[in-house]
Design goal:
Elements lengths: L1 H17 L3 E5 L6 E5 L2 E2 L7 E6 L4 E8 L7 E6 L2
Antiparallel strand pairs: 1-4, 2-3, 2-5, 5-6
Length: 81
């Protein structure tokens, strides 16, 4: 019984370690933008909604660049828990 419990606990912990979250960015006013995380562009074309970005980091630098050059880019350091 103790072995089964330990194996089940180990499987549960492994699934928690390897689980990934996903990020979504959107613009409330419909302005199109690019999302860059840790220097990697997440969307090729500007969009007002960027979905399902896999989270593979604990800390990341996020930069949002708008298609409209009059809007200043947004730079943030984020922590994913």
């Amino acid at each position: 019984m103790k072995k089964i419990f330990l194996i089940t606990l180990a499987c549960f912990l492994m699934s928690q370690v390897f689980s990934q979250g996903k990020l979504t960015f959107f613009s409330q006013d419909g302005k199109k933008f690019w999302v860059i995380i840790n220097g990697e562009k997440m969307n090729k074309e500007p969009s007002y909604n960027v979905k399902d970005i896999p989270v593979t980091f604990k800390w990341g630098k996020v930069r949002i660049i708008f298609e409209d050059e009059k809007i200043k880019p947004i730079d943030k350091n984020v922590q994913v828990v």
